[in-house]
Write a structure and sequence with these properties.
Layout (H helix, E strand, L loop, with lengths): L1 H18 L11 H20 L3 H19 L4 H22 L3 H5 L2 H21 L7 H18 L7 H22 L5 H26 L7
Helix pairs in contact: 1-2, 1-9, 2-3, 2-9, 3-4, 4-7, 6-7, 6-8, 7-8, 8-9
């Protein structure tokens, strides 16, 4: 069942990435776009629910809610970001409960270097992509901080859970695409399309990797 649902989620994600942009013509709200965009992550949440991983399912469901709000209307952007932020808090709780501990993780050079690189990337990404005179600079900076913390907490997981770490980093990267597309749109429609597609697939890939990699994590002591 997990494989079937995973394949369904992948099909929905690829289909949305390829054709979803055509659903946002006219004035909001964009009902069809909202349902289509959230569908692939809802299926991932169903996988987590079937595995009885409530924290993982909650993180995914709030991610789906964030997708839905972003698709519903541009005016709901900050509400969508808040939904994602809440989802990250569920992920953080799950990762820290099942991890090896922050202190133990910091004693391992690869994890420490990865964490430092992620922190630097967060500052650079925010500084370069989000205009400081924009009203959303402050709230998006807070959101980026929580997103970065989520990815950092994934580095405390056992090495066997490397897929979760990769997924968290992909999620982090995908948000860079969101800011890039929002504040620095490409005038070339073809390049804009592929940039949007790449960002969306990085996001779905991140969520899917977190979902699959974290299955059973709630049972870890």
């Amino acid at each position: 069942m997990t494989k079937i649902l995973g394949a369904l989620s992948a099909i929905l994600a690829i289909a949305y990435g390829a054709f979803g942009s055509s659903l946002y013509e006219g004035a909001p709200p964009y009902v069809v776009g909202t349902i289509f965009k959230a569908s692939s992550i809802i299926v991932l949440a169903l996988i987590a629910l079937l595995a009885r991983s409530r924290l993982l399912a909650a993180g995914l469901l709030f991610g789906a809610l964030g997708d839905a709000l972003l698709a519903w209307s541009p005016d709901a952007f900050l509400y969508g970001a808040l939904a994602f932020l809440i989802g990250h808090l569920f992920y953080i709780t799950l990762f820290l409960r099942a991890g090896i501990g922050v202190g133990a993780a910091l004693k391992q050079p690869p994890r420490l270097l990865g964490a430092l690189a992620l922190i630097v990337a967060a500052f650079v990404m925010t500084w370069m992509l989000v205009p400081r005179d924009n009203a959303m600079f402050a709230p998006l900076s807070v959101y980026t901080g929580v997103l970065t913390l989520m990815a950092l907490c994934s580095f405390t997981l056992p090495a066997a859970r490397w897929l979760v770490m990769a997924g968290a980093v992909l999620f982090f990267i995908s948000d860079g695409f969101v800011a890039w597309n929002m504040f620095h749109p490409d005038p070339d429609p073809t390049l804009a399309y592929w940039r949007s597609f790449a960002g969306w697939m990085a996001y779905w890939g991140g969520q899917a990797a977190i979902c699959v990699g974290a299955l059973g994590l709630h049972k870890a002591k």
